[in-house]
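Re: weekly structure request thread

Next one in the queue (290 aa):
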Amino acid sequence: MKRVETFGKILGVLFCLLFLILPESLEWISYGFFGIILLLVGIPHGAIDHLTSDPFISKSGLIRFIAFYLLLIALYLICWFFFPLVALISFIVMSAYHFGQTHFLGVRVPKTADIILFLSRGSFFLALILLGNLDETATILKDIVDIQLSDKISIAIIAIIFFCTVAIQLYLLKGLRKKDVFELILLGGLLYYSPLLVGFITYFGFWHALPSMIEEYAYLKKIPQFSTFKKFFIQLLPFTVISLIGISLILMIGQLYLETSQLIMIFFIMISLISFPHIIYMDRFLRKSA
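Done, posted below.
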């Protein structure tokens, strides 16, 4: 499965390079790329949280799981409604930790300090994506926060986070792997210069969702009822389809009343809602299987 991950990352890099040279008139292709990656790995990798939590979950246990999952979503939705800035900051921090954690799958990190390593690594890549497309980011978030940063300040923020995450890893792990150097420098440069949606979905899809799904498959294939990829794939379908239908319906309705930037913001809010419980359960799973 490592070959699959490597192939996916090479594909992601090639797509980033392609979108760097595509004329603006073909920008619509990025939406198709975004949708395909979200459909293939983005949403599916969080569709089996119930199984990574308990592979032998009973029907009553599944009902309790779904009820608690929905409760967490509802609580976060309330936070978005009444405290949007707090919800936004929380989503960025949670995502930074969650994405950063994926960079160190299979690596022994001191548990007393792993949070700061994961958070710093994820923050670096999110900063590259968001600050590298500052105008677009500011437009999308304008209803929540007024972002006014110069290019120099943005670059300074990125540089500070870069040195922090490198220093933290050198201290905790006593060195950098070739993989780390590639990600920090080459991937980092690509994400900074890529369009917002392309950079985000490349990083999210190929550096987070795909490795996470491979980790999930490696865990579940040890159990007879999930021992083949076909059986694993079937388990991904129910909650993937439900999520896609729900998101699609809301976006279709939103197209009638909202501007593009508002529609993108609504989309990210929906992603944050399903991400909140997923991050909790995925963290528990990864720590259990470490």
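The mean pLDDT is 88. The chain has one domain: 2-16+30-289.
Next request, please.
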